[in-house]
Design the sequence.
């Protein structure tokens, strides 16, 4: 059976890195919500669209984008991936109660995944790091301008080791914006964990302060048990 992995965690916890490793090791499609949003919001002509203008302002200031807009784009992408018969791993979705569970008029992402993949095939991971590490990691983070892969802070190279592209700083990665993102995470994403637990979903918690490959070893053990 095909599987879904949802990776939660504050900024800098390594959600994207672990999702990329899952994509390479276990043949998942990595749906990176932040990168997907950024590509849409910075696409040529985006500033001519009033909706994208609004969402870009939220994105650049560290606030979460409008949940209804996010939910629509994520569900459309999810359905296409499911129809192709592939595993999927999310790094950054769902971020709000509305995105996760919807309302009387909108089906949330969790219900859609239950329908497309089956509840027993959904694995939820929560990566934990202290705020001070989140701020430090994000403040020092560089990503490739071509492929989007991150560069470890301890690395001493100017170009991406994967594709050779130039490294760049994201607009999100400055200390003041990161503090806003952490506040958003606690106030808007944390309630999602509580509701998932209330509904009987098991959330696997992982210490994300170690090097990425050590964290991935732990995640790999969890993946192979389901």
Sequence:
């Amino acid at each position: 059976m095909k599987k879904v992995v949802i990776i939660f965690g504050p900024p800098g916890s390594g959600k994207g890195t672990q999702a990329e490793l899952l994509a390479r090791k276990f043949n998942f499609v990595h749906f990176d919500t932040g990168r997907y949003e950024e590509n849409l919001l910075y696409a040529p002509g985006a500033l001519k669209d009033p909706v994208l203008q609004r969402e870009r302002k939220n994105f650049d200031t560290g606030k979460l984008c409008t949940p209804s807009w996010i939910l629509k784009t994520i569900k459309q992408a999810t359905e296409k991936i499911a129809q192709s018969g592939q595993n999927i791993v999310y790094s950054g979705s769902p971020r709000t109660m509305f995105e996760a569970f919807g309302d009387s008029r909108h089906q949330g992402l969790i219900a859609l995944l239950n329908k497309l993949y089956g509840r027993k095939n959904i694995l939820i991971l929560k990566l934990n790091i202290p705020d001070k590490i989140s701020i430090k990691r994000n403040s020092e983070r560089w990503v490739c301008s071509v492929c989007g892969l991150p560069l470890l802070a301890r690395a001493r190279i100017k170009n991406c080791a994967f594709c050779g592209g130039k490294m760049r700083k994201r607009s999100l990665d400055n200390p003041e914006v990161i503090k806003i993102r952490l506040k958003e995470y606690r106030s808007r994403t944390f309630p999602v964990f509580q509701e998932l637990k209330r509904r009987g979903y098991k959330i696997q918690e992982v210490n994300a302060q170690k090097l990425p490959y050590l964290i991935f070893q732990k995640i790999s053990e969890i993946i192979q048990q389901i």
Notes: The longest helix spans residues 175-198. The CA atoms of residues 70 and 76 lie 10 Å apart.
